[in-house]
Specification:
The chain is of the alpha+beta class. The chain is built from 13 helices and 34 strands. The protein has four domains: 3-138, no CATH class; 143-331, 3-Layer(aba) Sandwich (Rossmann fold); 339-532, Jelly Rolls, CATH 2.60.120.200; 539-597, no CATH class. The longest helix has 23 residues, at 113-135.
Amino acid sequence: MNTGRKRTTLLTIRCVAQHGSLEKAFTRYSYIKCDKSKFQRSVFISSPEQREWPLSWRGGCSLASPAANCLLCLPAQARLSTTDHLGLCKSRALGCVINAKKVGLDQGGRLSYAVMLLWSLWSAILLLVSLEAAEEDNVRAGCSTAVNDLVYIVDGSWSVGFSDFDTAKQWLINITRRFDVSSHYTQVAVIQYSDTPRMEIPLGQHQSGAKLIQAIQSISYLGGNTQTGRAIKFAVDHVFASSNRARQVKNRIAVVVTDGKSQDDVVDASVEARAQGITVFAVGVGSEITTSELVSIANRPSSAYVLYAEDYTTIDLIQGSMEQKLCEESVCPTRIPVASRDEKGFELLLGMNIQKKAKKIPGSLILEAAYALTASTDITEDTRDIFPEGLPPSYVFIATLRLKGTSSRLTFDLWRVLSKDKEIQVAVTLSGKDKSVVFTTTSLTAEEQRVTFRGVQTLYDGKWHQLKVLVRPRQVSSFLDDLLIQEELLEPVEPIYINGETQVAKRRGTDLPVAVEIQKLRLYCDPHQSERETACEIYSVVRQLSPPTTCRPLGVQHTALQRSSPTCRRPIQSHTVHTAHSCLTVVTDGSHVTLVAH
């Protein structure tokens, strides 16, 4: 009797994918060989007795056939959930290992029951991987799909009051709506504290946004004194530590909301939270808060992790800022060195390997370097490597560039993100034909939406210029050399596909490169960086700041002038040097230097 050919369900395969779970029972059997480098998924197998085992790759396991390059093992006693490598099944293999025991075909070519069990498993994986391979074309990522453990630590002391506590709960609900609450993406916990912390919602208890919102609404006001430090310690020791997906979660975030000075020490608990990799935001409400205490609670810099509201009736005014900061923490893992601090964002010159692929040339100022892309320089990278978690809802794209020759007359995408099917997810397009700039992004109601900015003719004059595109959830603005060109409204957007390509300097609708000189190419997650990142590196902007000078051949003479620059928003130092034959003005703002010849 060949038990492997019974038409009974032997196993149920559950594959946790990017967009939920797929479950199906399989009864067919086949011989397969896999390439485990193709996919990475969390996969479990369940027996009819409802026992669940994780699938895993083991270095000590191997197929009987020496030509096989991978093996799936069923550990004898394994109950932990693990992220495992899955293969795309292609052809036949002649053997397998189950629980570290080698089994295979007998002399007559018949399979044992155990082997048939494994073939059943492989067959199931084959189908599931095929289904998920199709889904790979539609993998979107953004703030809503971030893998977070998010814990709200909410003040419930007597100073808050019943009405304001209800307002605080609604504020939490409004922020939480931005995330996809599930076991695969964001899990949320809520702690209310006064004299002692009280666990209101355990981490991961609710696996849908609707159920979580209902649970937050049902939280009753506690009342009592203010022991903020005790609440933070409780979150570190008992809430974050209880997460059942410690290896999978990418961001652990705590949001502390308080309306007054704590009656215990907050420093030790906050230091321990940060030491364990927990990002802490401090939200102060009302006039009784202590700024120094909020700074002690929150991560550094305090300008990014401390928020203030005048009172609970105005706390909605900082909702947008809180949402943006949580999103930045979720999708912007890298930082760009800027002046005395680092800003969250993406240094595209580095990430897109432009510095390696293009020739280095002098930039707009003496101390600046730029890179010359030619018509044969292919700047293409996988979007997963550049924007692995997608884009935030607000950001500012900044490019310092020079268009010379034919590139000033072409229409090309200076920067674009494409889906696997070559559909534009976001793009900044330069149109030399009509001297405009076009911004393209996604849309909830159409395939895409475009905004055309005019009044940028000087961008195509063959000189260095700085172009900025400031994107907000419902508005996009363009700037050229710090001058606001145009503001336009946007329809709601959806997260971008991340399993395609990101490219720089490509002809519109083709993969043909375009020759262009680039000095800066950055995307900042903080939209306020648009105000700080000015065009002081542009000669024409600096020239306007240099003082009028009359040069006479009277040997060498120094004239110094200091004034505040409304454009650069920082002190400008200007030194005029008179020589026997010429006159040079050295202008510096602390980070850029230029010599202006008279």
